[in-house]
């Protein structure tokens, strides 16, 4: 009994640790969520989308999608092209806002007027068109989870899901604490400048990997 409990807890902890280590970075998805939190725009929906998408992608990886992607180079290539193109466009738009102060109105309005559908559509694109998301969730985390024995696979997924929930709740909390800072237009411009740079850097990494491959 103690051996079984120890095995369950160690597997859950492994899923939590691996997932938290990989997702706790300021990537494209996380920066967009932070932006929405600071705006106070559809925060719960964004957090819910990110956690559910992580669970589904990790679950697919554990169920065998990691092997499928490794045997489908053409699908991976098309995903990389779409993802890199989207990141370039988003990065350039972010730099445009940084240069021309597109979000200055938010200082007085306090909220974004973007619809829920538009916000979730952008977030879905940043998630599903980014090959690095699949590398982290499906291939890396999923393949580690797939090595677990029997039902322990899904205990691993539960641990990973818990890590995703904790991370995005922490991100939401951090964003709320930063709302006072973003009462100034310069803060929005700085965030957009950093966001644009990270998006373009991610796009360059994707193109580099495509050329190298």
UniProtKB/TrEMBL annotation:
Location relative to the cell: Cell membrane
Q: Which domain of life is it from?
A: Bacteria
Chief location of this protein? membrane
Keywords, in A-Z order = Cell membrane, Membrane, Transmembrane, Transmembrane helix
The record gives the membrane topology as: Multi-pass membrane protein
GO molecular function, a single term: amino acid transmembrane transporter activity
An example of a Pfam family matching this protein is: LysE
Record's keyword annotation contains Transmembrane: yes
State what protein this is by name: Lysine transporter LysE
Provide the species name: Corticimicrobacter populi
